[in-house]
């Protein structure tokens, strides 16, 4: 049935592979960095952790150079349609490398690591592995690459979540993350197998052309889409697939919580956009309303459910990390709104919102860590009176939370504004979606503002004065993140230009 | 014997659908972490049967390759899962997922 390739064919395959290697340099570089970190850990066993973290930071910073070089390469598919290089992928490459660097910076500030674990061992190597996996997620053009890269991210994330081995909460978080992750990726692969059965293709563009050429069985297509959505929805933490999020976010080491809630979510959105914009048919009259539901309406249901559920349940939370977990579910809903619009402006708004979410969410978790270093607690009750004891941390956290609500003059406001105006630009069709988004934002004002309320307007129960200064480096980083959140809230043109420039998928104009 | 049909695509797909059902049933009803992971393996193998069957009747090699990778990933997943479950057993003295709940709303 299958013929062996001839010698000439093998030669041409090898030639294509080596020719494409030039466009794969950042990933190779990061893989080498990953192995280098493991070797450094073996050699410098027992020494102070700073060597590993500095190497990771410098290494990740070095990869930005290689990613920048890729702007000058032609966009298109690599490795026989497995992988793709385009502006969209490059945007996410920068995004993931920067979030990896911020995760390392946050880890260095977190004092819990000194009491919970003996050595940082493979921690930083796994962060790099996650960066590689997420970069590959954003650049996959084939169902097989999507599956492999997603599992690379998941497996690294499972281990990182359970990194505090002796801590029951961390281990429990790892178990829950693992069980939900394994089931949803299993369902996703089943969905992939159905799509493969429908089209006999695994490349996204080939799937799309096959589906539009030969048509398909609508029931099977909806079933496959639902199953695939289970895998993607788990990654982005949207509502029917969100059950892991609160426990994992609360139990995991805080830097990992920040990393998962920003980077891993963004990787899920990158995949979602690539898959649903390219592979799943849309637009033409033939494709509308399969059994009364098409995938846009599926996404609308998920998005509305996420916004309402995340914001309402967050109202009762007493733990700040758990509160931010529910807020991240709600934010998944807002970002989905930008994907539902499905035009160039909507994609631009989505990418811009991810950028703003990156700054404000990392900032908020950074302050939560600095406060936990001093008070040893993440409970809302223990934030009382902190505004006077830690003035800069209080101010910074307030700015990040205002940005998460979406009030001016912060970056979060511009992000929400772009998403909602992209919805309204589509006509009155999506007016009610924008209305739900605005109303749930109003609800979110209450629980976000509970934190500044406790910090500024309530008195601290104990009156003794300890040294609450988080240190110079921490103050500088905090002030920088706060300044960026406000600065880009006022002068958002550069970020919005970057987002606009990055909307080209596969180097094609899709809309 | 002439009543028996030759084995075709639908037979494979039926088996795979049953496996998916059993896997989901195990995941949803069982409390033991190991049994849940066995359910996950059933789901992955259901997908594998689909891939191989479609590959056979479509005539391409893509499905065979995909199922090979799924097998490898399943093995890696089992290794990580067992490491986490062993750690859970050390701390909680149980692998019952309903007894592992230190975090409450």
What does this structure look like?
The complex is a heterodimer of chains A (511) and B (105). Helices cover 74% and strands 1% of the residues of chain A. By secondary structure, chain A is mostly helical. A two-stranded antiparallel sheet of chain A has the order 1-2. In chain A, β1 and β2 (83-85) form a beta hairpin. In chain A, α6 runs antiparallel to α7. The two termini of chain A are 41 Å apart. The model of chain A is unreliable at 283-292 (pLDDT under 50). By secondary structure, chain B is mostly helical. Chain B has one domain (10-96): Orthogonal Bundle (Helix Hairpins), CATH 1.10.287. In chain B, 74% of the residues lie in helices and 0% in strands. Chain B has 3 helices and no strands. Chain B has helices spanning 9-29, 33-58, 62-92. In chain B, α1 (9-29) packs antiparallel against α2 (33-58). The radius of gyration of chain B is 18 Å and the shape is elongated. The interface between A and B is large, with 43 and 46 residues.
H and E order of chain B: HHH
Give the total of domains of chain B: 1
CATH top level class name of chain B: Mainly Alpha
How many strands in all of chain A?
2
Helix proportion of residues of chain A, in percent? over 70%
Radius of gyration of chain A: 23 Å
Strand order, sheet with most strands of chain A: 1-2
Architecture of chain B, according to CATH? Orthogonal Bundle
Number of strands of chain B: 0
Terminal-residue CA separation of chain B: 62 Å
Relative strand content of chain B: under 5%
Largest sheet of chain A: 2 strands, antiparallel
> Average pLDDT across residues of chain B?
88
What's the helical proportion of residues of chain B? over 70%
For the termini of chain A, the CA-CA separation is 41 Å
- The structural class of chain B is mainly alpha
Question: Using CB atoms under 8 Å apart, which protein chain pair has the greatest interface?
Answer: A-B, 43 and 46 residues
The CATH topology label of chain B is: Helix Hairpins
The poorly predicted ranges of chain B are none
Please outline the major beta sheet of chain B: none
